[in-house]
Amino acid sequence: MTHDGEDTAAARRPDVTGLRLAMNGQDQQAPPAPPRADLPEDRSQAILEAAKQIGALFKRAGHPFALAGSVAVYAHGGSRYLQHDADFCVLPEDAEAVAATLREAGLAVLTPPEDWLLKTTCHGQNVDIIFALAHEPVTKDMLDRAHTLPVDSVLMPVLSPTDLIRSLISAFSEHYCDFGSVLPVARAVREKVDWDAVRAGCGDQPMPAAFLFLLERLNVIDPQEGQP
């Protein structure tokens, strides 16, 4: 899974409009350059369209799955500002069948060096098909806990807020601890998360524990019972 937070797009320097010499000897502005075709007008909408199409394929094929990542956060009421990809969780034993469904729909399926996901592209957007979250296999219980929610008008199972947060902060380590990307996610879904379950699942690990402490100090969540 791509542990998509919501990055702020880098500001682009506007193109400097060129000048040409007019027939009367006075400078005039050249006509503006046409928009670049490789930049979608709305990247977030393109990611949502990809998520809707893949979700519809999985529903028709009967594959157990759950939407994850930033699109899942959006479905639970978070920001619509999506700048990465769409993520789906499937059972490890269903990976080959899911890949076959994607290929039958005309989508290329790539097998990256990581052995916990497959990749495809839809509407020009990257889509990750994940069968392990934070080094733990996706399970039937996890998919059973998913909430059926509208994703831009298409109903599909969405990873529960508790499982979503736990998967994000369980991935923190000495080599990856981007608290800033997960903090707005925690703020967006905090009232829907079973924080005791999150602490039980990963609160004894140093980096997740540090993030939970940060949430407490920022008054995003209440301190653990029995602590000041």
TrEMBL record:
**Region of interest called Disordered, as start-end residue ranges on this chain:** 1-40
List where Basic and acidic residues composition bias occurs. 1-15
Q: Which Pfam families match?
A: NTP_transf_5 (PF14907)
Q: Which InterPro entries match?
A: NT_sf, NTP_transf_5
Q: Which residues form a coiled coil?
A: none
Q: Which domain of life is it from?
A: Bacteria
What name does UniProt use for this protein?
Nucleotidyltransferase family protein
